[in-house]
Amino acid sequence: MALQEIVKTRVDKDLKDEAATIFKSMGLNVSEAIRLFFQQTILMKQIPFSIYSPNSETIAALEKAQKGIDGRKVALEEAFSLIDE
Question: For 37-81, what is each residue's pLDDT tens digit?
Protein backbone atom coordinates (compact mmCIF):
# COMPACT_ATOMS: atom_id res chain seq x y z
CA MET A 1 0.00 0.00 0.00
CA ALA A 2 1.24 3.50 -0.86
CA LEU A 3 2.05 6.12 1.72
CA GLN A 4 -1.07 7.65 3.22
CA GLU A 5 -1.54 11.42 3.02
CA ILE A 6 -3.89 13.36 5.27
CA VAL A 7 -6.25 15.84 3.64
CA LYS A 8 -7.76 18.47 5.93
CA THR A 9 -10.49 20.93 5.09
CA ARG A 10 -13.03 22.98 6.99
CA VAL A 11 -16.68 22.78 6.05
CA ASP A 12 -19.91 23.86 7.69
CA LYS A 13 -21.04 21.24 10.22
CA ASP A 14 -24.55 20.99 8.76
CA LEU A 15 -23.11 20.51 5.27
CA LYS A 16 -20.82 17.70 6.49
CA ASP A 17 -23.56 16.03 8.54
CA GLU A 18 -26.07 16.09 5.69
CA ALA A 19 -23.52 14.72 3.23
CA ALA A 20 -22.40 12.06 5.73
CA THR A 21 -26.01 10.89 6.09
CA ILE A 22 -26.32 10.50 2.33
CA PHE A 23 -22.95 8.74 2.10
CA LYS A 24 -23.99 6.37 4.89
CA SER A 25 -27.15 5.44 2.97
CA MET A 26 -24.84 4.49 0.10
CA GLY A 27 -22.59 2.39 2.34
CA LEU A 28 -19.79 4.99 2.44
CA ASN A 29 -18.22 7.12 5.12
CA VAL A 30 -16.92 10.64 4.47
CA SER A 31 -13.32 9.49 3.89
CA GLU A 32 -14.42 6.85 1.39
CA ALA A 33 -16.57 9.38 -0.46
CA ILE A 34 -13.64 11.79 -0.71
CA ARG A 35 -11.37 9.00 -2.00
CA LEU A 36 -14.04 8.10 -4.55
CA PHE A 37 -14.22 11.74 -5.66
CA PHE A 38 -10.43 11.80 -6.12
CA GLN A 39 -10.45 8.49 -8.03
CA GLN A 40 -13.22 9.65 -10.36
CA THR A 41 -11.44 12.97 -10.93
CA ILE A 42 -8.31 11.10 -12.02
CA LEU A 43 -10.26 8.63 -14.17
CA MET A 44 -12.23 11.37 -15.95
CA LYS A 45 -9.43 13.98 -15.92
CA GLN A 46 -11.98 16.53 -14.71
CA ILE A 47 -14.35 17.16 -11.82
CA PRO A 48 -16.78 14.23 -12.07
CA PHE A 49 -19.94 16.35 -12.20
CA SER A 50 -21.16 19.45 -13.97
CA ILE A 51 -20.54 22.84 -12.42
CA TYR A 52 -22.71 25.72 -13.54
CA SER A 53 -22.25 29.43 -13.04
CA PRO A 54 -25.11 30.80 -10.98
CA ASN A 55 -27.74 32.80 -12.84
CA SER A 56 -29.06 36.13 -11.57
CA GLU A 57 -31.89 34.46 -9.61
CA THR A 58 -29.45 32.18 -7.79
CA ILE A 59 -27.09 35.07 -7.06
CA ALA A 60 -29.96 37.10 -5.62
CA ALA A 61 -31.04 34.18 -3.41
CA LEU A 62 -27.47 33.62 -2.19
CA GLU A 63 -27.14 37.30 -1.32
CA LYS A 64 -30.45 37.27 0.59
CA ALA A 65 -29.44 34.11 2.46
CA GLN A 66 -26.07 35.61 3.41
CA LYS A 67 -27.52 38.94 4.55
CA GLY A 68 -30.44 37.38 6.37
CA ILE A 69 -33.87 38.84 6.76
CA ASP A 70 -34.89 40.96 9.74
CA GLY A 71 -31.72 40.00 11.61
CA ARG A 72 -32.15 36.24 11.18
CA LYS A 73 -30.34 33.85 8.90
CA VAL A 74 -32.43 32.19 6.24
CA ALA A 75 -32.06 28.93 4.37
CA LEU A 76 -31.34 29.16 0.68
CA GLU A 77 -34.74 27.63 -0.10
CA GLU A 78 -36.47 30.44 1.81
CA ALA A 79 -34.27 33.05 0.15
CA PHE A 80 -35.35 31.80 -3.29
CA SER A 81 -38.98 32.28 -2.28
CA LEU A 82 -38.27 35.89 -1.25
CA ILE A 83 -36.37 37.08 -4.33
CA ASP A 84 -39.23 39.12 -5.77
CA GLU A 85 -39.87 40.94 -2.49
Answer: 999 999 999 999 888 777 887 777 777 777 766 767 767 667 667
Is 65 in contact with 59 (CB distance < 8 Å)? no
Distant-in-sequence, close-in-space partners of 55: CB < 8 Å, separation ≥ 6: none
Q: Are 79 and 62 in contact (CB under 8 A)?
A: yes
- CB–CB of 34/7 below 8 Å? yes
Amino acid at 16: K
- The overall pTM is greater than 0.70: no
